Amino acid sequence: MSTVSTANGGISFWYAEEGTPAPREPLPGDSSADVCIVGGGYTGLWTAYYLKKAVPFLNITVLEAKFCGYGASGRNGGWLYNGIAGRDRYAELHGHDAAVRLQRAMNDTVGEVIRVAGEENIDADIHHGGVLEVAHTPSQLARLKDFHSVEIAFGETDRVLRGARETAERIRVSGAVGSSWTPHGARLHPAKLVKGLADTVAALGVTIHESTPVTEIRPKHAVTPYGTVRAPYVLRCTEGFTAGLKGHRRTWLPMNSSMIVTEPLTESLWATIGWDGRETLGDTAHAYMYAQRTADDRIALGGRGIPYRYGSATDNDGRTQPATIEALRDLLVRFFPTTAGTRIDHAWSGVLGVPRDWCATVTLDRSTGLGWAGGYVGSGVATANLAARTLRDLIQQDSGQAGPTDLTALPWVNHKVRRWEPEPFRWLGVHALYAAYRTADRRESASTHLGTDRLAKVANRVSGRH
Ligand SMILES: Cc1cc2nc3c(=O)[nH]c(=O)nc-3n(C[C@H](O)[C@H](O)[C@H](O)COP(=O)(O)OP(=O)(O)OC[C@H]3O[C@@H](n4cnc5c(N)ncnc54)[C@H](O)[C@@H]3O)c2cc1C
């Protein structure tokens, strides 16, 4: 099978059929607002949504560098699920019960996104089939079982562990020796969700300016080449692009993730694979993969390509290196050998934000009115919604309209983290980390040993990941 006919970049496959949305007007000049939101992805748009719903007279402006959904929100794997980066660290810092509250809030968030999408008539191809994570090697199986027990300890009593045969009854992943399934996940079409959200908040009266890059955020100011928006609250919702803002080069590292999508598979091919439940599918490798069966019966599959570009460089409209496309295609065929002759229609990449301690955060600095949310490390589709409701509550509390809430008391609120190392250490560190993970995955595949490879443990410790 060749990838010569594969479309490459163009933001993502998710825009290939429907096209990118019609552009909205840039900022016409200096202006003011009650809340200025920088970045029109899920975080910025959900925040605008919940604030406007809570206080309809609020004057909210969203400033977006390109178009709403240009970033990871229009490119991701469409796993709406309950994972949150940093939960175990928050358990260490704030105690187990606090982390359980955070996990419960994430479990509820999956339903919240589905509820609002329904209420606002956003058709995002949502299918609530849960998340199935498979193991391929003895080490992965041991890790999967540990992971399964830990999730149950954090209150997920509805999680199910499946053996090889039961796993194959759901999805016939070649060589899978077991899996863990949770109902707290759904498959969706990322770009349909972000476009629907942008249209919904615009209809509610939120002002959105596109093609308007913010160059600097200062207390009460968002500065752009076309003028400055003055607002008591300025919220930074730029996730993987944060390094592009003045003073933020080392705040969050822009990590790359790449995806491919097949042509629609025939019914006879699907009969060899199963996957009737349309669960989102992942594995337990160190350099893990994620996949979904799309509404039009393709397989969209993602994983780590080139993890990081020197100097926190971010984007080229999703163009992906041929070697990464080949590696993802090989992974697809390893999972589903009957797809060996299947065409790969599209490949693309995007960036996500990684804090130095790999913990997602949501913050409102009450002394400056500056807020931010992100650092979701690849688990942002649901987390952005929880972050947005939390930012709403923090602003309402700060402006005296409401008191503290269950959300403002969650342990990821106002968490502080140190910055990344300067270059070249940042580049060397991340490339060494992923080289170590790939070696560990190879060694685990060749071994009957049950434990996690030592190299991966060292890499986790050195990187600050666990
Ligand atoms: C390939 C890929 C697959 C993924 N798969 C999943 C998944 O399956 N499940 C999951 O939970 N998570 C996944 N993620 C992560 C998830 O998509 C993100 O965490 C989430 O979309 C982040 O939303 P956001 O609004 O914070 O950031 P983004 O969607 O990146 O939005 C930020 C926006 O800010 C704009 N912007 C940036 N800088 C400026 C500026 N200076 N001025 C104005 N605007 C600016 C950008 O143009 C962009 O539109 C994936 C990410 C990638 C890249």
Automatic annotation (TrEMBL):
Tell me, what's a Pfam family for it?
A: DAO
For whether the record's keyword set contains Transferase, the answer is: no
Q: Which residues form the FAD dependent oxidoreductase domain?
A: 34-394
One GO molecular-function entry: oxidoreductase activity
EC number(s) from the headed UniProt entry: 1.-.-.-
Q: Which InterPro entries match?
A: FAD-dep_OxRdtase, FAD/NAD-bd_sf
- Keywords (A to Z) from UniProt: Oxidoreductase
User: Can the keyword Glycosyltransferase be found in this entry's annotation?
Assistant: no
Return the protein name: NAD(P)/FAD-dependent oxidoreductase
